[in-house]
Write a structure and sequence with these properties.
Length: about 425
């Protein structure tokens, strides 16, 4: 059994206490529950007590010698960061498309010429399970070094059953073998395969009648996602796919209104999706519908930044009462990054969110976007011992000093896995 961990005397300890039942909205997103000179006792993988250092030393006076003591003096302590939207499992990279975009090509032009999703699909189809596992494991190591303790991972680079299954099986093995928790989403509806371009409804039928039942039978995913976009899947097709997934126990998610207004936000509210993601072009009507139904808006400012597009209007969404989360959208085409702290910087600089709001968006609201609000995302007694310690003395400085990885220490399930910014050797892949 691991020794207890006693994180002591943080300059600011961000607890977000009281946020487990529902994502935070509006003014709630500025209420961080900060304890100055705060300390946390973690044992058996769970948070056991939180308070000022004086209170905690008194409470555990007869057990201090047992603990692995982590001195957080002059540092910021937060819940472990949560990334609720990634395409973690893929093969290869697409740096050539980056150059094409710099010369004026659009995302859809690149995709329609055989690049984009199709290029990664070809590489992922060709890769073995072990190759995908090795590449994705190293990617998770990088996430961990940036303070992330839980990620969502989508399939979608298969466009046929065997590769979709391979991606989801790799994600499941990563969840079993890597210290980061990996939460799986089936996204067979990422794009229409070229052979179905003239009859996309046939592919929709294949998703509904063949792939989704197999995903459920093999228990390969918790969520079902679809790219609702002009030239990809229509709102009507998207609704069919999401409702089919729900019949098999898969919770709906949706890539919505990324490139043009397409009533994706409205559809998310209609089908009761747990989240709607991207939302660069979401209508005010759609935002209000999401707010009413409590659909989490997972915003991806790194994607807009990399595609040189205007970001989603995060400020307006918060003001309208939409629960907002942030994510890297880690993928090889439109957001090849694992730095959730940088995404938080962009949330401030490109979306007008405050430092408090982006911290909420990358912790408890992100946890709610993947149905984990009762387990992670805040520091409360009984929750997982997932903690990130940053080399700054207050949460505002974390956003003020942008583009820097301030992560010093990461605790996952009550065990120190990153110390001094370096991955503990036993967690690296041999």
């Amino acid at each position: 059994m691991n020794a207890p961990i006693f994180i002591r005397n943080a300059s600011q300890l961000v607890t977000l206490q009281g946020s487990s039942a529902a994502p935070l909205v509006k003014e709630e997103m500025s209420e961080l529950g900060i304890i100055k000179n705060g300390s946390v006792w973690i044992e058996n993988g769970l948070v056991q007590a939180i308070g000022t250092d004086e209170e905690m030393v008194k409470k555990y006076a007869d057990r201090l010698g047992e603990a692995d003591v982590v001195d957080a003096s002059g540092k910021l302590v937060t819940p472990g960061l949560v990334d609720p939207h990634t395409h973690l499992v893929f093969a290869g990279s697409r740096e050539n498309e980056f150059n094409m975009r710099l010369q004026g090509a659009t995302y859809m032009e690149i995709m329609n010429s055989g690049g984009g999703i199709y290029a990664t699909t070809n590489r992922t189809q060709s890769a073995t399970h072990e190759e995908l596992f090795q590449e994705s494991y190293q990617r998770l190591n990088q996430f961990l070094r940036h303070g992330v303790t839980t990620v969502e991972a989508k399939s979608g680079y298969g466009m046929e059953w065997e590769t979709e299954r391979k991606q989801l099986e790799v994600a499941r093995e990563l969840n079993e073998k890597h210290v980061i928790d990996v939460v799986s989403t089936f996204m067979g509806a990422h794009a229409v395969p070229k052979e179905y371009k003239s009859n996309p409804d046939e592919f929709v039928g294949k998703l509904i009648n063949e792939m989704i039942p197999k995903v459920a039978e093999l228990e390969l995913a918790e969520f079902n996602d679809v790219f609702c976009e002009h030239g990809v899947f229509t709102p009507e097709q998207s609704k069919q796919i999401l409702e089919a997934g729900r019949r098999y126990g898969l919770i709906p998610k949706i890539h919505a209104d990324e490139i043009e207004p397409y009533e994706g936000a409205e559809l998310a509210a209609e089908v009761g999706a747990i989240s709607a993601d991207h939302l660069l072009k979401a209508s005010e009507k759609g935002m209000k519908a999401m707010a009413e139904k409590g659909v989490v808006a997972v915003l991806l400012p790194g994607t807009a930044y990399f595609l040189m597009a205007e970001s989603a209007n995060g400020r307006k969404m918060v003001d309208l009462g939409v629960p907002v989360a942030l994510s890297t959208d880690c993928n090889p085409g439109s957001s090849p990054t694992v730095s959730l702290p940088f995404i938080m910087n962009l949330g401030c600089l490109k979306m007008g969110l405050t430092p408090a709001e982006v911290l909420v968006a990358a912790t408890i609201n992100a946890a709610h976007a993947i149905n984990r609000g009762g387990e992670i995302g805040s520091l409360e007694v009984g929750k997982k011992g997932d903690v990130t310690i940053f080399n700054v003395d207050n949460y505002m400085k974390l956003q003020y000093s942008y583009g820097v990885n301030h992560t010093d220490t990461v605790v996952k399930n009550g065990k120190v896995v990153v110390r001094g910014g370096q991955l503990i050797e036993e967690f690296s892949l041999s």
